[in-house]
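Sequence in, structure out. Go.
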Amino acid sequence: MHNYIASLEESVYEKPADDSRTNAVWSVSKQLLQAERLLKFQILLLENIQNDFGSLLQAEALPVDWLRSNLDEFKRLSSEVEETLKKPTAQMVDLMYKSISIRDARQSLQLNTSLWRISWLTFIFLPLTFLSSFFGMK
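Output:
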């Protein structure tokens, strides 16, 4: 997954205004969100198991932190997914949207220029057309 994200990131940074990779970026973002939710659920589950069975183990005089290493490993894994995969993907999405909006703004300016020219032509020729048709009547 990390190699795929790295190659996708490289292609996005080469041509950020190209929106052909939008579906791939959203798919990766969705998968990372699902992985993060799953990890958070697992962490919550381990914490609940640790707390619920901790009171039973404490009554038996057994070690209470028997799941602590697994819980710490899941927390480390969750933060690693956040730092190394999810944040760069969010930055990629942000870059794509910003560059696409810049591209669209440029196209909008070109369209505005064309419409401005058409408006001036209309401003000049519409009164002339009216005058010629008015004086051309019998």
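Check: The chain has three helices and no strands. The longest helix spans residues 68-135.
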